[in-house]
Amino acid sequence: MHVDGTNSRASSITDSAKNVEISNFSRASKMVLDIGEMAWHTLPRNDAVLREISTSMEGLSPDEAAKRLAIHGPNALTPPKKPGFFAKLWAQLNNIMIWILICSAIVVCALQQWIEFGLILGVVVINIAIGLMQEGKAEKAADAIKAMLSASAQVVRGGKRFTIEADQLVPGDIVMIKSGDRIPADLRLLAVTNLQVLEAMLTGESVPISKNLKPVKAASGLGDRKCMAFSATTVSAGQGVGVVVATGDNAEIGKINRLVSQVEVAKTNLVIQMEILGRLLAVVVITIAISAFLLAYLYAEEDPVEAFKSAVAIAVAMIPNGLPALVTIVLAMGTSRMAKHNAIIKQLPCVETLGSLTVICSDKTGTLTKNEMTLVALRTSAAQYDVSGVGYAPNGSFSHEGVNVSSDEMDTIRTILEGTVLCNDSDLDYDGKATYTPVGAPTEVALITAALKAGLCVKDLKVARPRVHSVPFESEHKFMATVHATASSDRSAKTPVMYVKGAPDRIMPMCDGQLSIDGKSKVPLDRTFWERAQEHLSSKGLRVLAICRGEVAPGEDVSTLNPSVLLERPASLTFIALLAILDPPREEVIEAVKVAHEAGICVKMITGDHALTGLAIGKMLGIAGDNTVVTGPEIDAMSDEKLASIVNGCNIYARASPENKLRIVNALQNGPGPMGKLDGDSIDDDGPPKEFVRRSMMARESHVSVARVHNQTSVTVVSKLDAFIPSGQRHVCAMTGDGVNDAPALKAADCGVAMGITGTEVSKEAAKMVLADDNFATIVVAIKEGRRVWDNLRKLLIFNLPVNFAQGFTIFWAYVVGFENSPLTAIQVLYVNLVTAVTMGMMLAAEPAEPGVMQRPPRRMGKRLLGKLVLWRCVFVCALLVCIVLGCYHWALTDGIPLNKARAEAFNVLVFGEIGYVVTTRFLKMSTFHPRVFSGNPLCFASMLLTAALQVFLTYTPGVNWFFNMPEAMDPIQWARAAGAMVVVYIVVELEKALVDPVMMPIVRPAMDWVGDHLPAFLLSGNQETGAAAVDIALAEAEKKKTAGAEQC
Q1: What is the assigned CATH class of domain 35-78+151-256?
Q2: Over 80: is that where the pLDDT of 224 sits?
Q3: What is the C-alpha separation between 45 and 536, in angstroms, rounded?
Q4: What is the Cα 240 distance to its own chain's centre?
Q5: Mind listing the pLDDT tens digit for each residue in 579-613?
Q6: I need a surface site. Which of 272, 691, 724, 1036 has the fewest CB within 10 A?
Q7: Does residue 363 have an active-site annotation?
Q8: CATH number, span 375-582
């Protein structure tokens, strides 16, 4: 009957395939959809599974397999569309700073100023080349996943066994798997023999999963679907038979591939702030250039061509040609420093993003923990002994209630652990240096490590008590047993001893007694005591095993022992102890979490492991909070709005699928965000634009009105609109992980962090940062570096912008006050832009972190590089330099000094004024009248000396001084004025720093606020999802819901 039904379905599929070949493609598409959406783990029996997919244990016929291959396609992942070279080149060109430089080059080329044209074009090429080298790597996450798929598979087709290429598998194929195989497709298991599959890279489960044939509920997580085997996971023990139910993109790993390909990478705040800076610079430069042209043409009555040349000269002088390269250098230096601390940055802007992090979402297995199972507790009838040490290295000790055990207790512990060594099929290899390599099941290796901590010699013990028989572990029975020969007291006979290790509920029925408190005799079994002890240990998230022993009865044939015989055997064994095993947190991670909390950063754990295990680790790390744990199935049942409402309050997520991790990251990124104080809340630091805050408040008010109209609608609207509160109030999220299951969330996070040693290539390619040492603590070091980079970028702007503006305004005001000739020539201006600014800018890029950088709260998302303090300092220093340069230039002309020598003086006064200013810029607010100015940055004085030496070289070297329009050497009095200008700039700016908060800012702040309120919105906001445009969308959606709610009422 079953065969007829199967043949009938096969015939139906054949007819369907023929129809596909002719015209009815939609029907085939529907079949693909049905198979992909079927909850195969819920079907109760093998015949139901085979009937549903139209196959049998004889397998598909070759013809049927070919037809299904035509319908479903190869068992391969769809590769993502990769950008070509020109797309990458356009991505580098499509930058407003680059466009400003290109426009400058075009204009000077039209004016046939070839030297200036060559220099500006060279700057453009260098910037683009650096960008291509740093950012031009194509996305490889999907390729890495594809490489993980099995190359071949053993299948049954037409009743015969074949080995075929894995990409030829189709739904309905019968596949044979064994220990060591990589599973080639998603399988519903039909038969298993001690089958264990390592799924850590997919589910986060830290130990191999014992497979069975029992169906589970539809909502069960991947880790609980024990009747399934998933593509790209590895068989660690046993063998099995399964039917292919999903291939290629329909397999679980294919779903991850689609998620990785579909996740869009958001712009970092640095990129947005540089766009804002570029727009502001463009507006300022164009405005000043137009003003200069009109001034020269109408006021000075110059020829239009000459007036245009003057305007171009001023514009070129004000453009910070070296700034894009300097920003890249700052980020690259930060990247280099991080690499020395084992944090490898793949995308430069990510360096700055680290300084804004408010939350780190971390995978548990292999990230917060070492992914090395460890015996952490030993429960005997006398006491519970705690075991210290993490991982497979046998470093640790035994204690009871915080006190190291006595020698007598240690003897008892060694006796107990002898059984765990003998009843064990695994081993621990030592290379003689520092590396311990597990061989076999992680749980068993943990027991060997504990025995070594206790001082047992594993090899000698196995030689002294050779194994004579064993009953291997089977997932169906959940125990293993071994029989060992041992000498009797008179050494005249051999008395075999049997050890049984496994699940306590399976072991206890075999026992009629337990080891006494002194460990020397057998007493009646207290079953209630052991059940409570097991429950207590399990409640802490520990994996609990039991160990028992007993002598084999005289004349009993041990060769006949098997699981059934042991279960039917009269209870006669002695219950020895409970063994509590865990993959505990790394010791250094506990301290790193404390530092993160001090820096205002929340740490959340997202794992595929069990809820109790996750909670136990969370308590050890200090992140458990109110002990709330949310599981993957619970997240699946939540709306996005509900998830957003609980995501801040819960720090531990268990049984999380890839989709769950992605939703958690998105919920954090969409707000509501951190409620505490943030760096950037100061009135002079500037968070998001005021207009954006106002529009956001309108959105929230719209939510309130919707709530009054229709209560059900309000729940939906509130969380969506909370996503559009000011961008500083949403979380900046890092996601750490090492498995394939982490890849989508790694890519979606503001900063994805992959593990370099244990991490898969998939996770490394999807991440923006890779930890070479797999140490969570390295993230904290990287965060500190990210905060340092932000500070140095601000120092760079606060130095570079006033210097560039001073050049342009020097030429501009020279026309205004009526000088016949410009104080600076075009080549001198370009030299300052490209050489002196870059030389001293690199010095600022190397500045160490300022004191207390990790005691600050996280930086507010959307905080501007150009806050009021930075803008005021730019205006003040620009005015100071313009006055000094024009004053010295006028002084020189008044003294009858020739034009070229007067220009030489103006040139040197400007550069030496920069040297005086750059010293003050090392600290934004702290004074440099302090010994700290002489330490921390060896490049500081080297850069200043190099800049001064270059000025002397340019002024006195024949040919070179002619090229820079300085054919005559300067007089000593001119050098004195240049040196005096350096000292004056330094002293005046230091005085300004002392007075800026109590005196200057209260005066200039209202004026800056007024200007900010009247500037066009596009100049102050970035093109991002949380910008004003997104708020407009939210307002429109809210209005629609309001109208719909009113109609329903």
Answers
A1: mainly beta
A2: yes
A3: 36
A4: 37
A5: 999 888 888 888 889 989 988 899 999 887 788 88
A6: 1036
A7: yes
A8: 3.40.1110.10
